[in-house]
Amino acid sequence: MQWIDISTFKALRQMLAEDVKILGGGTKLLQEGPLPNRVMDLSSLPIEQGLYQAPDGSVHIGPQTTLEDLLNWPDTPNDIKRVLKKMGAVPFRNLATVIGRLANREDISDLYPVMRLYQTQVTFVTPITGVPQERPLTWESPELPEAWLEVVIPPKTSAYPLVEFLKFGKSSQSRTLLNVTAGLQPVPATPFWTLTLIVSGITPAPQEWHWTESGEAIFSVVTGQLGERCFSVTADPFECHLIRSYWDILAQRLEERLGGI
Ligand SMILES: Cc1cc2nc3c(=O)[nH]c(=O)nc-3n(C[C@H](O)[C@H](O)[C@H](O)COP(=O)(O)OP(=O)(O)OC[C@H]3O[C@@H](n4cnc5c(N)ncnc54)[C@H](O)[C@@H]3O)c2cc1C
């Protein structure tokens, strides 16, 4: 395997065009499947590599930021910290990068749902333009190879969502098989709330469902409609039963937090 050190955007663009894989912590790229012939490392690129808060309050996460860095950073929102704590053990979190986890579209990710609910933005480069562009964090695989330079959690201008999640694995040692994450956010200047449920593990891409209702109605409406939504994407009654049971727990936690606001 050849290791390529990239120090200019010109070189990055060239290597992307040649489909050279980007190395984060290597916990997926160097451990699963055949090793790539060539990998490139972005650590010499003249960009912010770590974690910082901009004057507008947005949180910027560069390519060398590990899961453990984000977990231990004082300004990381608590709901994101709670997810990070449930991801593997410390030695793994010291290696795996935030960007490597989000750019890697395995059929399940514990970090994607909470970062999506926080309306995270991605700054990336493709071989076509070679200049940094921005877009919201989504699951869809891009048509062109991308180098992610940073992910940005926007400033807390409106309230951050209340986030609760549950993950299900075959045993405590195994990877997650199902992750159900719920985010509750007020609709500004109305008595309504938007509830977003992101379910990953039952289909190759996470399912994202939304409801907007008044605070009194939202939990019962979701409970009433969840079965139908679930059976529209899987015929497996066990998965739908699990998702509904998880929702009951998440709804109870969210209702308690809502009562405390
Ligand atoms: C022991 C262990 C426990 C785990 N536990 C969990 C868990 O609890 N929850 C969970 O969700 N996942 C878990 N995982 C999966 C893990 O999160 C993935 O392996 C993840 O991709 C790790 O990030 P990395 O930095 O090591 O990525 P790498 O392996 O380096 O790269 C992964 C992918 O991301 C791409 N990539 C990396 N950096 C960039 C960049 N800057 N721009 C564009 N693409 C990039 C790579 O090219 C590659 O395709 C676990 C894995 C292990 C080995």
UniProtKB/TrEMBL annotation:
It comes from the Bacteria. SUPFAM superfamilies: FAD-binding/transporter-associated domain-like (SSF56176). Keywords: Flavoprotein, Oxidoreductase. One of its GO terms (molecular function) is FAD binding. Residues 1-187 form the FAD-binding PCMH-type domain. This is Molybdopterin dehydrogenase FAD-binding protein.
